[in-house]
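User: I'm writing a tutorial on reading structure tokens. Could you give me a worked example: one chain, its sequence, then its tokens, then a sentence or two explaining what the tokens reveal?
Assistant: Sure. Here is the example chain.
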Amino acid sequence: DRYLAVHQALMATDALDEADVDQILARNGASPAAARGRQHSDEQRAYLADVHKLAEDLGIQGTPPFAVGA
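And here are its predicted structure tokens:
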């Protein structure tokens, strides 16, 4: 499963930049360009807005952070 492999690789890396993410995606058979396109799609923005609303409704004030390039 590509999702699990990518997730595990991202979580196993201490500090990531865009190039690291691209390498992990490519190494696991995912297209970095396609992932970036989906990341900024209207569908993804709507999904994130829905999840944010649900978190607000449930009183959840945070999630485990994952920062790239920070």
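What the tokens reveal: The chain has four helices and no strands. The chain has a mean pLDDT of 86.
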